[in-house]
Amino acid sequence: QVVERGRRAKGPLYDFLSPNKGLLDNTNVKVEDFRIEYKDDGQIDQYYSKLVLENAKTKERLYSDEIYVNKPLRYGGATLYQADWGIDRLQMYLNGRGIVVPLKPLPDQDGQRSWGAFIPIELVKASDPETVRKISNTQEGLVLVVNNMRNVQVYGSDKTLTGVLRSPQAKIDQKMEGMPIQFGEEITVEGTSKLPLDKILGSTGLIVKSDPG
Fold it and tell me: What angle do CA 51, 83, 151 make, to 5 degrees?
């Protein structure tokens, strides 16, 4: 039986007899870096994952390569494809203290993907956020919205746009003159609290195929 042109249907012994069975069982695949390149109009041009393959037991580095859409990594009969991307978390500073802010996907609007996060007001106003042990007010704080890996929209506790944080890795102007809101790698929120952005960290989606035909 032919189910696809040029391909045979897989029989009950296919997986057992496949020469690729357990191909990557003893190999770890690590994402060493992930980045997105943007066009001048702000649309995504391409996204890249730098992958490292290593021996699962000895941790010996076996192979590495950077992949992108239509340029997969092939190793020992397996093929790893760049399939998707996302935005995972923010590395920031709040009043001089480093914090990691996890992001959650928001409902798509007109096909545009976005991610959001919430920082409680008690953390924002604390001189040392690390001393805050319990959050009693979960309704008031900063709302962060991220559409890309270049900037972060910051909404204050009054629900108005306070400013836009620019990623230090972004290939855009550090400052934009004439903007009615704050724009830069650091903005001031809730009066006097300083909020610098260190890095926007993405996530990559991979597909591994070992079907020889």
Answer: 80
Gap between the Cα atoms of 33 and 50, Å rounded: 5
β-sheet bridge partners, residue 196: 186
3-state secondary structure of 16: helix
DSSP string, 95-140: TTEEEEEE-EEEEEETTEEEEEEEEEHHHHH-SSGGG-------SS
Instruction: Tally Cβ neighbours within 10 Å of residue 146.
Output: 24
* pLDDT at residue 34 greater than cutoff 60: yes
Q: Does the reported pTM lie above 0.85?
A: no
> Of all helices (H) and strands (E), which one includes residue 89?
strand 78-94
Give the phi and the psi of residue 125 in degrees, each rounded to 5: -90, -10
Q: Which tokens belong to 56?
A: 């699962």
114-152 confidence digits (pLDDT tens): 999 999 999 999 988 888 888 988 999 999 999 998 899
